[in-house]
Design brief:
Helices cover 0% and strands 56% of the residues. The strands form two sheets. Strands 2, 4, 5, 6, 9, 10 and 11 form a seven-stranded mixed beta sheet that branches. The protein is globular. The termini are far apart.
Protein backbone atom coordinates (compact mmCIF):
# COMPACT_ATOMS: atom_id res chain seq x y z
CA UNK A 1 0.00 0.00 0.00
CA UNK A 2 1.35 3.37 -1.04
CA UNK A 3 1.65 5.93 1.75
CA UNK A 4 3.10 9.41 1.87
CA UNK A 5 3.38 11.09 5.25
CA UNK A 6 4.53 14.69 5.50
CA UNK A 7 5.91 16.35 8.61
CA UNK A 8 7.99 19.34 9.63
CA UNK A 9 5.50 22.14 9.15
CA UNK A 10 4.86 24.78 11.73
CA UNK A 11 4.88 28.47 12.54
CA UNK A 12 7.97 30.47 11.64
CA UNK A 13 8.81 34.14 11.38
CA UNK A 14 9.45 35.81 8.07
CA UNK A 15 13.03 35.16 7.01
CA UNK A 16 13.17 31.91 8.91
CA UNK A 17 13.63 28.33 7.78
CA UNK A 18 11.81 25.03 7.93
CA UNK A 19 12.59 21.57 6.67
CA UNK A 20 9.72 19.41 5.49
CA UNK A 21 9.95 15.66 5.15
CA UNK A 22 7.81 13.10 3.35
CA UNK A 23 8.21 9.50 4.37
CA UNK A 24 7.21 7.05 1.67
CA UNK A 25 6.17 3.43 1.98
CA UNK A 26 4.93 0.85 -0.48
CA UNK A 27 7.26 1.99 -3.26
CA UNK A 28 10.75 3.34 -3.86
CA UNK A 29 11.09 7.08 -4.31
CA UNK A 30 14.00 6.66 -6.69
CA UNK A 31 11.71 5.25 -9.38
CA UNK A 32 9.33 8.19 -9.64
CA UNK A 33 9.06 11.89 -10.13
CA UNK A 34 8.29 13.30 -6.69
CA UNK A 35 6.79 16.72 -6.18
CA UNK A 36 5.99 19.27 -3.54
CA UNK A 37 2.73 21.10 -4.15
CA UNK A 38 1.20 23.76 -1.93
CA UNK A 39 -2.13 25.39 -1.40
CA UNK A 40 -2.37 28.80 0.21
CA UNK A 41 -5.52 29.85 2.07
CA UNK A 42 -8.30 30.57 -0.40
CA UNK A 43 -6.12 29.80 -3.42
CA UNK A 44 -5.60 26.94 -5.84
CA UNK A 45 -2.84 24.38 -5.94
CA UNK A 46 0.65 25.60 -6.78
CA UNK A 47 3.44 23.29 -7.89
CA UNK A 48 6.61 24.06 -5.90
CA UNK A 49 9.34 21.62 -6.88
CA UNK A 50 10.05 18.22 -8.40
CA UNK A 51 12.84 15.69 -8.32
CA UNK A 52 13.70 12.48 -10.07
CA UNK A 53 16.66 10.92 -8.30
CA UNK A 54 17.09 8.28 -10.99
CA UNK A 55 17.68 10.84 -13.71
CA UNK A 56 19.08 13.40 -11.26
CA UNK A 57 16.67 16.06 -12.50
CA UNK A 58 15.34 18.82 -10.28
CA UNK A 59 13.00 21.70 -10.99
CA UNK A 60 11.62 24.64 -9.00
CA UNK A 61 8.86 27.15 -9.40
CA UNK A 62 10.19 30.65 -9.95
CA UNK A 63 8.53 31.74 -6.72
CA UNK A 64 10.82 29.51 -4.63
CA UNK A 65 13.94 29.23 -6.78
CA UNK A 66 17.06 30.07 -4.79
CA UNK A 67 15.25 29.70 -1.46
CA UNK A 68 13.98 26.10 -1.44
CA UNK A 69 15.96 22.90 -1.95
CA UNK A 70 14.41 19.54 -2.75
CA UNK A 71 16.25 16.31 -2.08
CA UNK A 72 15.78 12.58 -1.60
CA UNK A 73 17.37 10.25 0.92
CA UNK A 74 17.05 6.96 -0.91
CA UNK A 75 18.32 4.96 2.06
CA UNK A 76 15.49 6.32 4.20
CA UNK A 77 13.03 6.53 1.29
CA UNK A 78 12.31 10.10 2.36
CA UNK A 79 11.70 13.26 0.36
CA UNK A 80 12.82 16.59 1.81
CA UNK A 81 12.13 20.24 1.19
CA UNK A 82 14.51 22.70 2.80
CA UNK A 83 12.85 26.13 2.90
CA UNK A 84 14.89 29.23 3.66
CA UNK A 85 14.17 32.96 3.63
CA UNK A 86 10.50 32.22 4.14
CA UNK A 87 7.95 34.88 3.28
CA UNK A 88 4.31 35.32 4.24
CA UNK A 89 3.42 34.25 0.68
CA UNK A 90 4.86 30.82 1.49
CA UNK A 91 2.07 30.21 4.01
CA UNK A 92 0.23 27.14 2.75
CA UNK A 93 -0.44 23.48 3.22
CA UNK A 94 2.42 21.58 1.62
CA UNK A 95 1.76 18.24 -0.02
CA UNK A 96 4.11 15.50 -1.10
CA UNK A 97 2.91 14.08 -4.43
CA UNK A 98 4.01 11.06 -6.41
CA UNK A 99 3.62 11.13 -10.18
CA UNK A 100 2.79 7.54 -11.02
CA UNK A 101 3.52 8.18 -14.67
CA UNK A 102 0.09 7.06 -15.68
CA UNK A 103 -1.71 10.39 -15.45
CA UNK A 104 -2.47 9.75 -11.80
CA UNK A 105 -0.97 11.04 -8.61
CA UNK A 106 -0.67 9.92 -5.01
CA UNK A 107 -0.92 12.60 -2.32
CA UNK A 108 0.09 12.82 1.28
CA UNK A 109 -2.15 14.40 3.90
CA UNK A 110 -0.20 17.67 3.87
CA UNK A 111 1.60 19.71 6.48
CA UNK A 112 0.78 23.29 7.40
CA UNK A 113 3.42 25.99 7.06
CA UNK A 114 2.61 29.40 8.48
CA UNK A 115 4.98 32.33 8.07
CA UNK A 116 4.31 35.31 10.27
CA UNK A 117 5.38 38.77 9.15
Amino acid sequence: QVQLVESGGGLVQSGGSLRLSCGASGFSLRNYWMNWVRQAPGKGLEWVSAINSGSRLIAYADSVKGRFTISIDNAKNTLWLEMNSLKSDDTAIYYCVRDTGGLSFDWGQGTQVTVSS
